[in-house]
Design brief:
Number of helices: 8
Order of helices and strands: EEHEHEHEHEHEEEEHEHHEE
CATH topology of the largest domain: Rossmann fold
Oligomer: single chain
Radius of gyration: 20 Å
Helix content: 25-40%
Strand order of the largest sheet: 1-3-2-4-5-6
CATH class of the largest domain: Alpha Beta
Largest sheet: 6 strands, mixed
Structural class: alpha/beta
Low-confidence stretches: 1-46, 276-283, 285-290
CATH superfamily of the largest domain: Response regulator
Length: 290
């Protein structure tokens, strides 16, 4: 878990049921999954996808699973981000459906993890109960291929899946490139440059910079960074996170380039464009030992 206590407690041990096929269920092991594989239709006329669903609301998950199964898809259901990152790395999923609000992280943080660890060969659709333009723009800017507002209508879900699948089959995969001010991050080559000059960074430093630049102008929580970059909870990555941020500040010299990486006390960080000329940022005091 990523530092946030589970709300559902014993509910995780219950047996989910497919609403469209009430006599068939997906057993949930008491320990860490394997993911929950659900049966599918065998209609050969339908395109069959391997779908990863990350959703902690059991009722919502059952409705989504029922719709997917009726359309002929295989579904692996994960109830939180930790289980998904543990079981979704090598599963060969062809579509990712993520809830925005999870017990241990945010679905938007998992997008970066998917692109970095799994790859960009499969579309990502984000679910959320929020329907404001700001959230939708944030999700799409973070790399989501579509955004669906809850409650999810099964016909709309299946139509959106068909649409994003057609785009990916046609090769419409967005480029792995982020630019802000004088900085350019190339996700394909995993290179970071400032004013055209390459900056040597370690792999995790690049991942950290990628996530911060991708989510610029919003608060990125420390728990989110730990999950997206290291794939584990903050308790196991706090010192490493501080050390990498210290090194990243030194190498990128944000203040000299009109950017500011603000430290929001006990919350996280916000990368933003400075509106006023500011003095150079004070050096972080990071414990780089151990």
């Amino acid at each position: 878990m990523l530092g946030i206590p589970r709300r559902d407690g014993p509910r995780a041990a219950r047996r989910p049921r497919l609403l469209s096929k009430p006599d068939v269920g997906c057993d949930t092991p008491a320990a860490m999954p394997p993911p929950l594989p659900c049966p599918t239709s065998t209609d050969p006329a339908r395109v069959r996808l391997r779908v990863a669903l990350v959703e902690d609301d059991r009722d919502q998950a059952e409705r989504v699973i029922a719709a997917l199964v009726s359309a002929g898809h295989d579904v692996a259901w994960f109830e939180d981000g930790t289980r998904f990152m543990a079981g979704g790395r090598e599963a060969g999923h062809e579509l990712f459906l993520l809830d925005w609000q999870l017990p241990d992280t945010e679905g938007i943080a998992l997008i970066s993890w998917i692109h970095r660890v799994v790859g960009r060969h499969a579309p990502v659709i984000l679910f959320s109960r929020f329907d404001d333009d700001e959230r939708i723009v944030e999700a799409l800017a973070a790399g989501a291929d579509d955004y669906i507002t809850k409650p999810i209508a099964p016909p709309v879900l299946l139509a959106r899946i068909a649409a994003v699948t057609r785009r990916f089959q046609a090769g419409a995969v967005p480029p792995l490139l982020v630019e802000l001010g004088p900085y350019r991050l190339d996700g394909t080559r995993r290179e970071l440059a400032r004013e055209g000059q390459r900056i040597e960074v370690q792999p995790k430093e690049f991942d950290l910079a990628w996530h911060l630049f991708l989510h610029r102008d919003r608060l990125v929580r420390r728990e989110e960074l730990a999950a997206a970059v290291w794939g584990r909870d903050l308790a196991g990555a706090a010192r490493t996170l501080d050390t990498h941020l210290y090194m990243l500040r030194r190498k990128l010299r944000f203040a000299e380039s009109g950017l500011r990486l603000s430290n929001v006390y006990r919350e996280g960080y916000r990368l933003e464009v400075s509106t006023l000329a500011e003095p150079a940022e004070p050096a972080d005091t990071a414990d780089t030992t151990g």
